[in-house]
Amino acid sequence: MPTIDAVALLRGAALRVTRPRVAVLTMVAGNPHSDTDTIATAVRRELGSVSTQAVYDVLRVLTEAGLVRRIEPAGSPARFETRVGDNHHHVVCRNCGAIADVACAVGSAPCLDVQDSRGFVLDEAEVTYWGSCPDCLARDA
Ligand SMILES: [Zn+2]
Ligand SMILES: [Zn+2]
User: Which long-range contacts (CB under 8 A, 24 or more apart) does 18-21 make?
Assistant: First the structure.
């Protein structure tokens, strides 16, 4: 996992550079699909006292700025990743909740056409593939 230049990313998005923002962005980049609790724990390890609410706020700002993408598979807390803009999809393990990236078939949103969008203008098709991950398959074998 390449490390990212969080400071440059924040500046590029015209966001003020703060230590919590840099720590959260770096953590999410290195650990894609982390949930808020995991991110907060890692950020606290690095910066000392940072409230979970502060981490929520940072994640919201980063998501709104388009630096972070939020995904929320059914039955799972929200997860965050810095792989944005390529409209990739996710495979989720029904047993252990493991998540992995899969490339979008088309590369841009929305990548699925509907026969009749009922007058809605569509900008995204969110696809989640559900199944069993290799670890769970190996354990059950
Ligand atoms: Zn699994
Ligand atoms: Zn992803």
Answer: 18/58, 19/47, 20/47, 20/50, 20/54, 20/55, 20/58, 21/58, 21/61, 21/62
Position 1 pLDDT exceeds 80:
no
Count Cβ atoms within 10 A of the Cβ of residue 51 and give its class: 0-12 exposed, 13-18 middle, 19 or more buried.
exposed
Distance 99 CA to ligand 2 centre (A): 8
Chain segment 65-79, per-residue pLDDT in tens: 999 999 998 888 999
Ion ligand 1 contact residues with beta carbon within 5 A: 93, 95-96, 98, 133, 136
